[in-house]
């Protein structure tokens, strides 16, 4: 059911990526606020599409496939652009890298587990990680355009908090996945 509203919301997250990336090349505070608004709208669709799919009984294989990919593409592209446009301090490249690497690890692990018909549900801690990450990134997108708070500091602290949770949840997922491979992760 490609045209269901939940699937269209998921697709919208992918469609917004070039717009957010393009706004990095536009000078001025308005472009930063627009990128922030687009990112926040995309982040809201992440929650909303899943809620609608479950409540309207429209959970589809296509949606289960595309939803995590859309999330990872959005987050990774924005983190790369923040680094490329010097809107992260050098020390904050590390949490950005940790977040992207964990997403690749978990994606590969999910793919393997799907082949052996094992599901890997999202943990509550991983949902907190996502919430913190999806709050820190738009703050970093606004950056210096917000004069009412130290946005870079607030965003980078949030990014570090998300990275710490990323390591914890990534390890939990890896340990769980390894148990299905007949090997010990410890």
TrEMBL record:
The family database entries (Pfam families) matched by this protein are listed as:
CDP-OH_P_transf (PF01066)
Topology in the lipid bilayer is annotated as: Multi-pass membrane protein
Query: Where is it predominantly found?
Result: membrane
Instruction: Give the GO biological process terms.
Output: glycerophospholipid biosynthetic process
PROSITE patterns referenced in this protein's UniProt entry, alphabetically? CDP_ALCOHOL_P_TRANSF
Q: Name the pathway.
A: Lipid metabolism; Phospholipid metabolism; phosphatidylglycerol biosynthesis; phosphatidylglycerol from CDP-diacylglycerol: step 1/2
| The protein's Enzyme Commission number | 2.7.8.5
Enzyme class label = transferase
Is the keyword Membrane in the record? yes
Keywords (alphabetical) are:
Lipid biosynthesis, Lipid metabolism, Membrane, Phospholipid biosynthesis, Phospholipid metabolism, Transferase, Transmembrane, Transmembrane helix
GO annotation, cellular component aspect: membrane
Reactions catalysed, as given in the entry: a CDP-1,2-diacyl-sn-glycerol + sn-glycerol 3-phosphate = a 1,2-diacyl-sn-glycero-3-phospho-(1'-sn-glycero-3'-phosphate) + CMP + H(+)
**A GO molecular-function descriptor:** CDP-diacylglycerol-glycerol-3-phosphate 3-phosphatidyltransferase activity
Keyword Membrane found? yes
**NCBIfam families under this entry?**
pgsA (TIGR00560)
Q: Which family does it belong to?
A: Belongs to the CDP-alcohol phosphatidyltransferase class-I family.
Q: What is this protein called?
A: CDP-diacylglycerol--glycerol-3-phosphate 3-phosphatidyltransferase
């Amino acid at each position: 059911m490609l045209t269901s509203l939940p699937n269209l919301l998921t697709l919208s997250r992918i469609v917004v990526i070039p717009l957010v990336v393009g706004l990095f090349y536009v000078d001025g505070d308005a472009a930063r606020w627009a990128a922030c608004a687009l990112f926040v709208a995309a982040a809201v669709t992440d929650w909303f599409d899943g809620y609608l799919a479950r409540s309207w009984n429209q959970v589809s294989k296509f949606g289960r496939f595309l939803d995590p990919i859309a999330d990872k593409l959005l987050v990774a592209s924005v983190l790369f652009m923040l680094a490329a446009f010097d809107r992260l301090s050098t020390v904050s490249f590390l949490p950005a890298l940790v977040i992207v690497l964990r997403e690749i690890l978990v994606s590969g692990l999910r793919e393997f587990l799907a082949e052996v018909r094992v599901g890997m549900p999202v943990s509550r801690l991983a949902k907190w990680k996502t919430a913190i990450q999806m709050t820190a990134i738009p703050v970093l997108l606004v950056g210096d355009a917000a004069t009412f708070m130290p946005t870079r500091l607030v965003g980078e602290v949030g990014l570090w908090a998300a990275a710490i949770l990323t390591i914890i949840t990534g390890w939990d997922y890896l340990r769980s996945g390894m148990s299905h491979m007949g090997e010990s992760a410890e």
